[in-house]
Fold this protein.
Amino acid sequence: MLRGLWKLTWLEIKIFLREPLGAFGSIFFPVLVFVVAGRWFSGARVPTAAATRVLSVDLPAFVAVLIALSAVLSLVTIIAIYREGGILRRLRATPLRPQTILTAHVLAKLALTLVTMALMVLASKRYYPIPVHVPLISFAVALLISTWSILSLGFLIASIVPTARFAQPIGAAILYPMLGLCGLFVPLQSLPRGLHALARANPLTYAVSLLGGIWKGEAWSAHLGDVAALVVVFAVCTALAARVFRWE
Amino acid sequence: MGDFGTPGPVIQVRGIRKSYGATVAVSDVSFDVNEGEIFGLIGPNGAGKTTTMECVEGVRRPDGGTISILGLDPFRDVYALQNRIGVQLQQAQLQKRIKVWEALDLWASLYTNAVDGDRLLEQLGLENKRDAWFMTLSGGQKQRLFIALALINDPEVVFLDELTTGLDPQARRAIWELVRGIRERGKTVFMTTHLMEEAERLCDRVAILEHGKIIDIGTPEQLVRRHCPTRTVLLATESAGAEERLRAMPGAATVTRHDARYTLEGQGEDFVTEVIQCLSENRIRVTDFRTVLPNLEDVFLKLTGHSIRD
Ligand SMILES: Nc1ncnc2c1ncn2[C@@H]1O[C@H](COP(=O)(O)OP(=O)(O)O)[C@@H](O)[C@H]1O
Ligand SMILES: [Mg+2]
C-alpha cells in the first residue's frame, strides 16, 4: 500500500518547486500579504483598539487560511492537468495504488503548507508591528488539520472541473468567495439568517476560528467544535469525491 | 505454458465484449498471443485496439468474456500481474518537469525486481538525457523513455500501444529496431498499430480488428496469400511478338499494354516464375521488370472494402 509513497511525495514537491511561480505563489505570497497588511494596519489610519484586534487575531487567521486555500487551489490545478495529460492514467497502470497517488499529493501540499507557516512565524518575529507569541506546535497542527480538511474539498472541485484550463479560475471562483462568509470580514452575528446558515456550513468559518484562537494562545478545549466540524467536512467531501472522482 | 521447446500462448482472450454507454467498442474478440512473438492488433482508429489491450493489461474490465495472461486473471490479479508485464499506454504523459532519471527511479522502486535504469537509458540511447525534464524531450525520446519504463521490471510481456504514432520516419525506424531487440531478449510483445507497414515489418502475427470485431488472424504472409493471391508483374519491352506470347501464358489472368509497358496479373506464388520462364524461352528482351506484391494494406482493403486511412 505504501510502496512508492515517500518517493512520489518527494518527487511531487520537487516538481512543484520547479514550476515558474510555483514557490512564489504558494509560499512567498501569503507571507508577503501578512507583512505588508500588518504594516498597513499598524499605520495611523485605523483606530488603535480595532487595529490591535486585527493584528493579533484576524490577520494571522486570514493569512493562515490563505495558505491553506492556495494549497487547495494548486492541488485542484495539478489534478486537472494530470488527468488531462494522462499522467494519472499512466501512474495508475503501475503497482502504485490509486490512494497512494492522491495521498502523495496531499502530503506534498501539507509539507509546503508547513514551510509557508514557518516563514510566516519567522516574519512575525522580525517584521510584524506587534509582538507575537505563537504556540508553534499547536498552530502547526491547527493549520495541518484545516488544510487537510479543505484539501478534501479540493478533490471534489477537481472532480467537476471540465478541463485543466478552467481548473484555476473555477477553483478560485468557488474557494475565494468562501472567504467572505467565514466571519472574518463581517461578524457572523450580524449576518441575515440565510447567510448565517451558509456561513455555518462553510468549512473556512471553523478554520478561521480555530487558527485565530490557537494563534492568540487559546486552549484546544475551546476549539473542539471547530476540529469536529473540520473532520466532518473531510469525511463528507472524501466520501463524495470517492464517488465522483474521475481519473481520466 | 506449452511443452518444453514449444512456446504456448501467454495470453488467451475468449469472447470479450466492452461498451461505453451506447458505443460498442469491442464485441466478441478472441485470440492467443504466443510466448516470444511480436503480436500486433491492427485496425483503423476507433476499431477497439486500445480497449482490447487495456482489458488484457487489467486497466479496464471487459463486460463479458474471459482473459488469461501468464496464468492470471488480469482484473482480479492486477497487482500480481503488474510485476510481470511492462506497459506503454497510448497518449499518456508524465509530469512536465519530472527528470528522466527520476521517472526511472520511481518506477524501479515500485516493482519487486528492477533492472539497472542507467543501463536501460544507455541501451535506448537516452544516456545524455538523464537529467532532462520530460517536457524538453522530443517525441521519439519520450517514446524511448516510455519503452524504458515498460522494461524497468524485466517483464515477461510488453504492451506497446501505437508506439510510433506521430513520429517521423527516421525515429520510427529506430523504435522498430528497439522493439525487435525486446523480442531478442526473449520477451513477448503485444502491440497495436494503425500503420500497416509497421505491422508488416515488425509483427510475427497480426489480428485485423474492425468495428470491435476480429476479421482474421495470421502471419502477414499468410494473410496476404489468403486474401490477396494476385501477383502483378510490370515490364517494359520493345520486342515485336511479346504481346502475343505473354497473352498466351496459361497463368496470366489479365494482360494490359500501354505502348511498350505491360501489366500482367496472375494468381499464386508461381506466377512470377512463369512470366520469367516465358520471357526467357521466347528470348524476349526486357528493359524493365518489376513485381508488385500485395501487402497488409491491400488485405485490409480487400476485407473491409475501404482503405485503413479513411
Ligand atoms: N473512455 C471511453 N469512453 C467512451 N468511449 C470510448 C472510450 N474509450 C474508447 N471509446 C470508444 O470506443 C471505441 C474504440 O476505441 P479504442 O479502443 O480507443 O480504439 P482504437 O485504439 O482502435 O483507436 C471508439 O469508438 C471510441 O470512441
Ligand atoms: Mg488506440
Observations:
- The interface with chain B takes residues 3-4, 7-8, 11-12, 14-15, 18-19, 82, 85-87, 89-90, 92-96 of chain A (CB under 8 Å).
- The mean pLDDT of chain A is 90.
- Chain A has one domain: 2-244.
